[in-house]
Design brief:
By secondary structure, the chain is an alpha+beta fold. The chain is built from 4 helices and 6 strands, in the order αβββαββαβα.
Length: 164
Amino acid sequence: MTNLNSISAEEYKEIFAPKKKRNQEESTLQKNFGQILAGYEKWGKLSADLVKYSYIANGEQRPATIINGKRWSKTGADLKKKGVKKGVFDYFFCIEREFIKTRIAFDIWLEAKSSTGFLTKEQKEFKARAEGIFNIKIFEFRSVEEGLKILKQEGILILTSNNR
């Protein structure tokens, strides 16, 4: 591990700048997707089968301080105290559907990723474990359009050709 107290400004930028740009792109994608989703909800374009959906605030901005060469974030510490776990996807949708003459809940999880982003180790573990459960579906998306396409395909977003 690099000692942060002994690196140059250029080395610091090289280590942290790409991640910062990726995080900003991902944050913008999450905000845009959330705003459009809220609009569709307001206009009654979400399926009546949708019980609830939520954005899960895992990757929020976490201003940090370096203490004894280690990064410490009050925001991160507070989220951890609230029970936030690494690896949980960004959006959760609970849908109630008819299944063999019984109403049953199905869960859909969406993860927004930047154009160059990748799943973390914890997200890969979450995905692998959740995909083994019959009533859970896991998706990643890299654009608002791709996220909306998933919601249409899963019957959450109800659009006709007149109201695309």
